[in-house]
Amino acid sequence: MRRAITIPAAGIFLATGAVLTATAKERPGAAADVLPHAVRVTVAQEGTWTAEAREDGRIQLTIHWERHSNWGQPFDRAELRGVTDEQIRAATSTPVTFRVEREAGALDFEGNFREGRGAGHFRFHPDRGFAATLRSLGISDADRVTDRDLLVLTMGNASSASLRELASLGVRARELEEVIDLSIHRVTPEYVRELRGLGLEGTNTVEGVVEMRIHGISAAFVRELESVGYRGLSRDQLLEMGIHGVGAEQVRELGELGYRDLTARQLVDMRIHGVTAEYVRSMRQAGFGDLSPEALVDLRIHNVSARYVRELAEAGFRGLSREQVMQMGLHGVTPEYIREMREAGFRDLGPEELADLRIHNVTARYVRELAALGYRGLSLEQVMQMGIHGVTPEFIREVREAGFRDLSAETLVQMKIHGIGSEYVRGPRRNR
Predict the structure, then answer these.
(1) Residue 228 pLDDT > 70, yes or no?
(2) What single-letter DSSP state applies at residue 186?
(3) Residue 153, Cβ density class (10 Å: 0-12 exposed, 13-18 middle, ≥19 buried)
């Protein structure tokens, strides 16, 4: 099974379902028999396209084919042969035809442009001789390449020159899937040299450089982190920071709030759990200031927000400790739950008592159902014990149907503790 890399690099959007992640043998439409040195021909690759002129002069071109397959990336203006700048930026809808030619094939486009935006239909013409090129580069399964693969390689601008240069740098693709991965994520020799210049490990395999490309590890990213004091980070640290979107802006914003000299691990944890500068400020306004990064993460993990703290205060719970608020947040003690329990007759409950009730699934509905069965005016301890031991309204009804009525709350709890259920109490009565 082909290893699937599903996270697109910047500027690429690829959504192909199982189309690009199956082996050639498994791909739908592939020929059952493969002749030596022969490329399998699949259905014609055609579909629709959209485009938009970018401020940097390039054209963002997206193709859509089959049902759920689409891919967009920026193209240099010169690659769109047959269309002029005047046509692209025409004030009225202007018919156009143009072509993109690359080693693995060519794409013919027809449609219309207006004010920098275009749309229409395309048809792909695969260059099936590219299989021989791949074979000459040592790609072991080059003969299994399909027209669909060639379309992907064309969009990714796979070239023999680039593959040879990557191999000279030690990043040698040996299988078709590796060529596709390098193509999809636009791993170029320049990018590999850039990584090498950073002194990073893991730059001598296709998988290693593709992973770094996917997560945005570049010289610019490293320099950005160095500018805010993070030098000498390992490849794993950079990957983790890249994966979770840790950047210089986050470091600066937290630093302005007094959180300086944070470790890479702390920054990642804060980012993962949404501890932003805005969150820190809001919690300070809610009365929780001077908290450590770990304490802020704990609050976030337990669903504690400034709004939640304010709502608890409006319900009468002011001046709570961090631990109390966390326990209430963890166990779902919401303002609604507090109001419902008060309406059910349980007033003046403390934070710990409310959390305990919630832990044991004691709700206002449960209290009302017990009351409907005659268990009114129960104490907090009685209700809690009944909830802990699973004395449900259904259990009470079953026991009553077995002939045992007017049992106290304590007796019902003891029956549950000792495994005495309706089936048990029915048995002796049937045998009399």
Answers:
(1) yes
(2) T
(3) buried
DSSP 3-state assignment of 313? helix
Which two three-digit tokens encode residue 27? 């791909």
How many angstroms separate the CA atoms of 142 and 174, rounded?
9
Give the Cα separation of 80 and 118 in Å (integer).
Answer: 13
The predicted structure's pLDDT at residue 404: 87
Phi, psi of 356 (to 5 degrees): -65, -45
**CA torsion angle 346 350 356 359 (round to 10):** 80
Q: What percent of the chain has pLDDT over 90?
A: 80
User: CA-CA distance, 180 to 12, in Å (whole number)?
Assistant: 14
In angstroms, rounded to a whole number, what is the distance separating the alpha carbons of residues 360 and 342? 17
SS3 category, 100 = strand
289-295: Cβ within 8 A, 24+ apart: 291/322, 293/259, 293/262, 293/266, 293/269, 294/266, 294/269, 295/322
> DSSP label at 89?
T
What pLDDT does 290 receive?
86
Distance between CA atoms of 24 and 40, rounded to whole angstroms? 9
Query: For residue 106, what are its two tokens?
Result: 């060519």
Report CA-CA distances (Å) from 28 to 21, 22, 24, 69: 12, 9, 9, 14
CA angle 183, 51, 13 (to 5 degrees): 40
Query: Using 50, 70 and 90 to split pLDDT, how confident is the model at 46?
Result: very high
* Amino acid letter for position 294: E
Name the token pair of 332.
Answer: 């779902």
Which pTM value belongs to this model?
0.72
Residue 407, CA distances (Å) to 265, 363, 403, 412 in order: 57, 22, 11, 7
Give the number of C-alpha atoms closer than 13 A to the C-alpha of residue 86, restricted to the C-beta side.
0
Q: In Å, what is the CA distance from 101 to each residue of 98, 104, 110, 159, 284?
A: 10, 8, 15, 12, 58
DSSP single-letter state for residue 79:
G
269-317 tens-digit pLDDT: 999 999 999 999 999 999 998 899 999 999 999 989 999 999 999 999 9
pLDDT in tens, 242-270: 999 999 999 999 999 999 999 999 999 99
- Is the pLDDT at 54 greater than 90, yes or no? yes
